[in-house]
Amino acid sequence: MARPRTHDEALRLKLLDRAGELLAADGPKALSLRKLAADAGTSTTAVYSLFGSKPDLVNALYTEGFRRFGARMAGTPLTGDAVEDLVALGSAYRTSALADPHLYGIMFTKSVPGFEPNEDAEKLARETLKPLERIIRRAIADGVFLDVPPETVAVGCWAIVHGLVSLELAGNLPEEFDVTTSYEAALRANASGWLRPQSAGTEPS
Amino acid sequence: MARPRTHDEALRLKLLDRAGELLAADGPKALSLRKLAADAGTSTTAVYSLFGSKPDLVNALYTEGFRRFGARMAGTPLTGDAVEDLVALGSAYRTSALADPHLYGIMFTKSVPGFEPNEDAEKLARETLKPLERIIRRAIADGVFLDVPPETVAVGCWAIVHGLVSLELAGNLPEEFDVTTSYEAALRANASGWLRPQSAGTEPS
DNA sequence: TGGTCATCGATAACACTGTTCCGATACGCT
DNA sequence: AGCGTATCGGAACAGTGTTATCGATGACCA
What we know:
Chain A is an all-alpha fold. Chain A is built from ten helices and no strands.
């Protein structure tokens, strides 16, 4: 054997860190391997020996993003009231997205052209939605929600938060728009729509 | 003065057409000015004298996308029942997106890194949502919907369709998921959530 | 009609990207 | 000590968007 590797775990973390900063500072367009390597005081080869390629590097960012995101979701306190809990999870989702918009772009809107998450990363991503499904299954089992497939409700909830956050991040919301209030109102309206008719008296807004 | 331009309107249309085809065939990553020019039998300079830059070319695609999209929205037959009409518009939105997914990517998910729509294009985009707002305003005025700012409801409706379509196009829906049915159910649930409580008896399916 | 010359457009160059190759390096082992 | 080899960094390759160059062109005016 020969020459011990200097492209070690420490450098790997440093590169990921700098990549996150570059991303946050100037967006996915500015995330260049050359600039990244230069900033970290190494060469582009290091990125290839540590990650494999640029998409693989982005995959690591994707995974890290979902780790943080999953922690926020799992750490959201729940009350047992299905509608309120869905609103709470939705708010956590938005908080997470606003905390690191470009990471959100990688995770949910394919903002880096060549990138597709690998199987492990995708599995991790799906795991983070588990709290959502748990709430919905219970609400359906308890007769609070309509008796429809839980996936349908879960997808609907995911869609509204994803849609709202995407519109907000893309700057597509109207001027003088009270985002936080409207966001909660929309989440509550959406969740309330799945209530069984006789229990539909829970007033939105 | 001298030499009349041969980079005329016909070439402009041809380039736009080929650009759409390249986009539809291999996605935004494969939309290269060199390939485009070669395919159209001209040089890259033509693109610059006709459009200005690549983002400007994409802006033209964006505008064309919203022209078609707006036509579909405006052409959707309405019944006067707010919830059903919102579902119908939402379905038209999805149809439009599925008809040309990559164009949808340009229009709604910033799939081309450097591109931002210019003012005219953005104004046109906003115009296409007018039918939505009309329905909502009337429903609120008639006391069918809750008395909240119409923008709040409009954004909520836009968000759920955008969210659902994004998830579908990104391949994030569960296996064995009846998209069309669930899509309508989610739209109906979302719209129903804005009904005033006393009229909340409209049963989602 | 012939000459001038502004203008157009294709070629080539530039600065950048991700990726690959290859030779110099620097350690572990004999 | 010296060999061998895995490792690493710089250079090379193929591609991108963009810009500059410069020859060809055709409309105007004499």
